[in-house]
Amino acid sequence: xxxxxxERTTRLTFPADYREFVESYGGGEIDEYLSVxxxxxxxxxxxxxxxxxxxxxxDRDREELGSxxxxxxxxxxxxxxxxxxxxxxxxxxxGAPDDWRVAVFRRQVPYGMNRWTVFDGGMASFCVAxxxxxxxxxxxxxxxxxxxxxxxxxxx
Length: 156
What we know:
alpha+beta, 4 helices, 21% strand
């Protein structure tokens, strides 16, 4: 990735942990459940991150998320991962990129429950917490076993 070019053309700076993840692994899937998007990469089905900069959410979904945030102020959102259950993990774009927290929107919840989970940490610590079972923000639980598998787009 040419992060400087991406920043210059999109005016977006990404968190360091995300840049390191993409440089190490690229886009792909964790345990055939959680897909991680990247900026465009020729031939990659996961290179759609920049196409999703302004996600469409209903007013109700925005209000639900706002109710979980201090002062109810909703920052800009940027989705970076999706689950096989169509849940979406977003960055809450407030402050410096390395301070962005993660919010997950669950598609499948019992009636009356909030669809959002806010994680007080970045992308890498969020993935670790999900894989170890510390948090379960998705409609289905990822296996919290000793061995998780990441399949990069080239290996899919």
